[in-house]
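Hey Z.,

So I finally got round to the pyridoxal-5'-phosphate thing we talked about over coffee. Here's the setup:
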Amino acid sequence: MNFIPTRGYEENFAKTVPFSEAILNPGADFGGLYVPEFLPKIEDSFLSKNRELCYEDLAINILKLFEIDIDEATMKEAVSLYKKFDNPKEITPVVKIEKDLFVNELYHGPTRAFKDMALQPFGYILSNLAKKIGKKYLILAATSGDTGPATLEAFANKENILVVCLYPKGGTSDVQRLQMVTKSEKNLKVIGIKGNFDDAQSALKQLLSSKSFKESLEKNHISLSAANSVNFGRIIFQIVYHIKSYLTLLAKNEIKEGEKIYIIVPSGNFGNALGAYYAKKMGLPIEKILIASNSNNVLSELINDGIYDIRDKKLILTDSPAMDILKSSNIERVLFDKFGAKRTKELMDDLNQEGVYSLTKEELKILRYDFAAIDSSDDEGQKIIREYAKKGYVLDPHTATCFKAYERLKEKDLKSVICSTAEWTKFAPTMLKALKNSDEKKNDLQALEEFSKELDIEITPSVKALFDKEIIHKDVVDRNDIKPKILQFIQS
Ligand SMILES: *Cc1c(COP(=O)(O)O)cnc(C)c1O
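And the result:
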């Protein structure tokens, strides 16, 4: 199967590329993102045949449906990394918390956020491809907290890959920062930026468009790649866990074959939701995908009103920082799938030039055939955290945004699965504040200890150990000093 760019193509440029090319060079030549030429179908027999399979084997069977140019041995090595998860027999536990509500826990990997689900195997595949063609790639990442640790972890000691990760000093939780600055592998570099996440991201964009920077990379025989969710190599692995959750419900006799379910996703860059959409299109019986936003409500506005408007919006810092996003990249892939390349280009051009685009009434109807959405405030999230903690189930501030969608958006009496994207330990100060219904915000270590005592639950050992680790990456710089730091690193 080949891949095509969402905004179409012109003559003289490769029209379609194989998977390997799409993931090594994820920026399509004419702007836009790579998508598969078509989505393979899973037949009813696929679900029954794969019902008892372990996560790794299911992942391989799904990858095979895409007929990508990655050999089976490489796929096997890649998915074997799931063995690092808490329980190798149950990579993504599905927990029943209400009679018709389940939580798909996607955070049992090394960095305690769902980003590991895709980045772990993806990291292996990318490094393997780079090695095969004898090229060295640099991955530049700007992080608001979860992408950074998961990217560093995915590429630690991986051959032919260098990673530089920029984080806003003071803009991440202590746990997230420590997960980055304590990494000792030689192919990783972590740099703190004076400023917020926007500053880190715009510094990165500036760098990516700098000619002299590219020349310096070329001189050192290094090419640029990307590991964020614009890379289809991540999306393909995000289809798997949605299908797995359905199979788990089947295996537990919670649903019958063919019975439809709702999938509820806390959304930022829309990678997770896109995985669910693709699974639905491939034939998984999903009634609708319910999108949860926080106060940065661009996605819920689009799905309710048909307008994506960032003209008067300023990024709001919320309790669910991984969803604090105004330009949500992966919705573009849905637009392409629904309305084609020409219309997608029109809409994305409108967004880039005017800061807004509008769907027609008919288009909105088509979008709402698969999606419904609602946004949830920090106060609402904290109330959910408190209520469920008291009932004995601990969920993080991102996952908490999903409950309003569960309560308000279901049109039919069907079972729902919430995607839980992070472990509470990454956001302990907010968790404690929510639990105690207070305004006081403690630091991470105090909050971790107090929260765990209060509810008598363990602090995940790898998280606790972070506080005693040696700090390797001490640089905190102005944005102008990023380039020399990076050049120094790649030349060392
Ligand atoms: C990245 C992230 C999200 C948002 O996921 P998208 O795929 O970007 O929509 C939600 N929650 C957590 C904890 C995350 O790390």
